[in-house]
Amino acid sequence: FFKQKTAYEISACLVGSEMCIRDSGLTYQNSYINIVTESIWLDDYEVVHITEKSFRPFNFYNLPIFVATQGHVKFIKETYGFDLFDDLIDHSYDSEPDIKKRLMMVYNEIKRLNDNEENVIKFYSENQYRFEKNREIICNIPNNDNDLKFLQSLMS
Asked: Residue 75 and residue 66: Cα distance in Å, rounded?
């Protein structure tokens, strides 16, 4: 799905990282859906691995789909409070323990959304406030000290 987004969708914010600067290209700005392929998506380590890639869809007003470890979507939602648009996107792949099944579920969800392009576009235009709220969360992450507290707890 590609489109030309409005000014509110491509406005800049200071995030405290180079994410807004490095990834400000037309690919994100002209897409409805962002398929995030996390660095670690195999469940070998039994850990949810979050990188800057998981935040990009929220920064660029995209609908997120994650190719990641089991529990990734749940962790992002519970830890940061992002709206993952569960009323449009079926993230049930997130709870699938079998990696092959999970990847097939992700593929099927991408295909389903692609086959319903008009519904995705309508949803997008009717829910701009939700995308803006996710962007606010991104812009406030530098003010959140949960990660620092977690690291300090590991060292004590």
From this structure: 12
> The tokens of 133 are what?
């709220």
| Amino acid identity, position 150 | F
- Is residue 16 within 8 A of residue 143, CB to CB? The reply is no
Model confidence at 5: pLDDT above 90: no
* Structure tokens that stand for 2 in this block: 């590609």
Distance CA 134, CA 8 (A): 13
- Check: CB of residue 32 under 8 Å from CB of residue 62: yes
Residues 6+ apart with CB under 8 A from 46: none
Q: CB-based contacts of 42: which residues, under 8 Å, 6+ apart?
A: 69, 99
Element (H, E) at 65: strand 63-67
Q: Tell me the one-letter amino acid at 37.
A: T
Contacts for 83 with CB less than 8 Å, ≥ 6 apart: 130, 133, 134
Q: Which of 31, 78, 34, 88 is nearest to 56 (CA)?
A: 34
The pTM of this model reads 0.75
